[in-house]
Amino acid sequence: MQMIFSTWPWRSPASYLPSVAAVFVIAIFHEWISVVQKKLLLLCKSLLPTSSSTTSSSPRHASSVTAVVDDNKPSAAATFGQPEAETSSVQISLKSMLQKRAVRAALLSVTHAFGAASGYFLMLAVMSFNGIIFLSVMAGLVCGFLLFHEF
């Protein structure tokens, strides 16, 4: 019988204990990652601009933003009657917004990847049909929940 990894022998309690401890720690890590991901998602949602600040009553301003997004350079029609400084500030704020969105997406993707990997590892550990490993996973999840979730 193979226990999680072939290099982890499970014949004696001294060699079995590290695998039980590792699964316990990974379960705690899994709960921590889920909390980090939830907090990061809430932070990202709070940093998004509100709908009232992204829309404008001026059609000329909306066409300027569309021209910047489409061509990455404002067209003459879009900037007609607008000072050059206003158009460049729209370009800078749009670029800054896109960079921040990319950073948020990358952070959320990395936390999701770690959460999925640890979750699949724990699932495979439990599927070894070993009662001690199952109890270790459950104890780690409970301890992680108690340590990292706010009540």
UniProtKB/TrEMBL annotation:
Location relative to the cell: Membrane
Pfam family, one: Ctr
Transmembrane parts of this sequence: 16-36, 102-123, 129-148
Domain of life (superkingdom): Eukaryota
GO cellular component labels: plasma membrane
UniProt membrane topology term: Multi-pass membrane protein
Gene Ontology MF terms in the entry: copper ion transmembrane transporter activity
Swiss-Prot/TrEMBL keywords: Copper, Copper transport, Ion transport, Membrane, Transmembrane, Transmembrane helix, Transport
Methyltransferase keyword on record: no
Signal peptide: none
Family, similarity comment: Belongs to the copper transporter (Ctr) (TC 1.A.56) family. SLC31A subfamily.
Name of the protein in its database record: Copper transport protein
Lineage of origin: Eukaryota, Viridiplantae, Streptophyta, Embryophyta, Tracheophyta
